[in-house]
Structures are given as structure tokens and as C-alpha cells.
Amino acid sequence: SILMLMYPLFFRYLKLATPWRIAILLASVALSFLVPRSPTSGMAPQMLVHFQSFFFFGAEIAKHRQLIIQHLSRYTLLFLIAGLGFATAQYAQGQIGALQGPPFAPPVFNFSIVQKYCLILFWFLVLERFSAHQPPLLRLLAKTSFTIFLLHGPVLIILRLLLPANPPWGWITQSIGAAMLATAICVAIALTGRRLLGAKSKYLIGY
């Protein structure tokens, strides 16, 4: 992934003065709205422009972790409600899945971007509450998270080909089920790769 190769730039970003970081973050968010996700995975530059704001956002969360926990923990449920609200609005507008298209197309409000920001904060705050307890399932997901990041795209493409286009049980139910199944498959690949290749598996699948 090009974004992974850009990690040194994101570390450099964290060393910039606050006004510069704010300007870069806001500019990257604006570009995410102007440049939607590419319909094909081959358009790497377009995907880079669209997704880079989430990396800057995540970098800011890492930098201000304690402040966010201190001041935003009370709003954890609100972030979930907001995320589900934007997901509902996205569905009502016919934006099934991530909004895709050519860059700088006629502007359409991309609900999925705001939804992701809300859910990122929700899951960050929820997982922070469990960080002291470290349930086995969360430990496993944390250890295999890089493999999930690497493989979830291809796995979801295969599942999309296998699952019905108009599921009788509803698009939301299928999306949740597909996400859980894709995560389970990625974890299984990570564990199998580790068992077969030992420590060398991290060079191939990140675990």
C-alpha cells in the first residue's frame, strides 16, 4: 500500500507546528470530499488522496490520546449515534457502500466520510475502556490488526462476488455479516500463516 510507504511522512507531520497540522488536516479532509474513492483498486493516486485524511486524523488521535480520552469519553455513545445516523442518511440517499466515482465530479455530500470519523472516535474510546482488561478476543484482534488491514480489501471483493446483490435479509444485515466474516477470515489467514511460516510470516502478512 502506498499509504504504508508514506508512514515516514506521517511521522514528520506530527512534528509540525499546530497551525500547519490543522491546515494540512483540513485540506486533506476537503480533498477526501472532492476526490471520492476510486471505483477500481488500480487508481492508486486517487485512493491515496481520498484516504490520507483518515491517516492524519489517526495521527492526531495518537498525539492527543490522553486529552481525547479525558474530554470526549463522556460522548462515546453520541459518536455511535452520530455514526449510525450518517449511515442511515447515506443509505436513504442511495449511497450503498463507500461513495465512488471520478475525482472532482459534481459535488455530492459523502456521508460515509463523516460516518467513519464518528465511528473511529467511538471505537477508539470503547477499546480504551477495555485496554486495562485486555479480553482474549481484543488481544487477538490487536495482534492480527495489520493482517486485517492488508487483506480485508481482497477478502471483501471475493465475498461481494459470492453474496447476493439484493439480499432478502437486507443490505445492512449483510454488510455487518460480511464485515464480521471478512475479519474472521483475515484472522484465520494470519494464524495459519504464523503456524506454517513461523516468525517469517510477518514479512508476508504482517503477523
Walk me through the structure.
By secondary structure, the protein is mostly helical. It is built from eleven helices and no strands. It has helices at 2-5, 7-14, 18-34, 44-63, 65-72, 76-92, 111-130, 136-143, 145-162, 171-197, 202-205. Helix 2 packs parallel to helix 4, helix 3 (18-34) packs antiparallel against helix 4 and helix 9 (145-162) packs across helix 10 (171-197). The longest helix has 27 residues, at 171-197.
SSE topology sketch:
Layout: H1 2-5, H2 7-14, H3 18-34, H4 44-63, H5 65-72, H6 76-92, H7 111-130, H8 136-143, H9 145-162, H10 171-197, H11 202-205
Feature tags:
207 residues, 0% strand, globular, mainly alpha
- Please tally the β strands and state the result: 0
* SSE string: HHHHHHHHHHH
Strand content: under 5%
Portion in helices: over 70%
Uncertain spans, ≥5 residues at pLDDT below 50? none
Number of helices: 11
The rounded distance between the terminal residues' Cα atoms is 16 Å
What do the pLDDT scores average to? 84
**Main structural class:** mainly alpha
Principal-axis shape: globular
| Biggest pleated sheet | none
Radius of gyration: 18 Å
Short description:
With 207 residues, the chain is an all-alpha fold. It has eleven helices and no strands.
